[in-house]
Design goal:
single chain; 244 residues
């Protein structure tokens, strides 16, 4: 998972620490206060990337590439199905990219992973200091991907990124024993971050964040049900939207 390797190098870990401290199941949607600007109707979907790590009895996290591939493919299938069913949207297949273009896209996704989570957390837990952002959601990645817009004709890219922590059998057994002694141990959780980002300027047009202590991103049916529910909130392509 190249994108997550880059994110691990860039992030201080504060986002995950705050996310783990929040409620065990939550989902929120935000979209840019557009001032009457139509929501993008021509979209290109980036390949979803989901990292899956196993939490061992000792409390260490170990990557499981097979599970990550399974989860990423499940989200991809669900996302493609949802977008194909939207008559108001034109979806363009991601073209073959050069190595330089792939690097540029990976950097873009890694930036979204950090900015998107910060945006969500500040909207929900930032208090009065962030009220102006709740009234006018105007988060941006700072720049778009003009080369991808020119290559595809799309106005925005659809992003799906996730991080799943799954407890091992040993961890679950230890959790039960600890609970009997009155001690609570963290087990696992899943985070999924969807977004639509303007390719012209990097503005986040729509964002959905979901964190769950029970969802299994490796399960294709679970991924399908969740993705379908999330994308019911996607504004109608080509129609003006109000901020939220």
């Amino acid at each position: 998972m190249v994108m997550f390797d880059r994110w691990m190098r860039w992030s201080s870990g504060a986002i995950f620490s705050l996310a783990l401290a929040t409620a065990s199941a939550q989902g929120y949607v935000h979209f840019k206060h557009s001032g009457g600007t139509p929501f993008p109707a021509a979209l290109v979907a980036a390949q979803p990337e989901v990292q899956v790590r196993e939490l061992t009895a000792a409390g260490s996290l170990e990557k499981v590439p097979q599970w990550a591939d399974q989860a990423s493919k499940g989200i991809a299938a669900a996302l493609n199905g949802v977008l194909a069913g939207r008559s108001d949207l034109t979806t363009v297949a991601m073209p073959k990219l050069t190595d330089a273009e792939q690097d540029s896209l990976e950097d873009f996704l890694a930036t979204y992973w950090v900015v998107g989570q910060n945006a969500h957390l500040m909207m929900q837990f930032g208090g009065s200091a962030w009220a102006h952002k709740r009234n006018k959601f105007d988060y941006t990645l700072g720049e778009g991907l003009p080369w991808l817009r020119e290559k595809t004709g799309a106005d925005a890219v659809v992003i799906a990124l996730g991080d799943d922590i799954v407890s091992s059998g040993g961890r679950m057994a230890m959790t039960v024993l600890a609970a009997a002694a009155g001690v609570g141990l963290p087990t696992g959780r899943s985070i999924i971050l969807f977004g639509v980002v303007n390719l012209h300027n990097g503005d986040i047009a729509w964002l959905h964040y979901d964190q769950s202590g029970v969802r299994d991103l490796k399960n294709a049916e679970s991924a399908k049900v969740m993705t379908e529910a999330v994308f019911k909130t996607l504004p109608e392509g080509g129609k003006p939207v109000k901020g939220k």
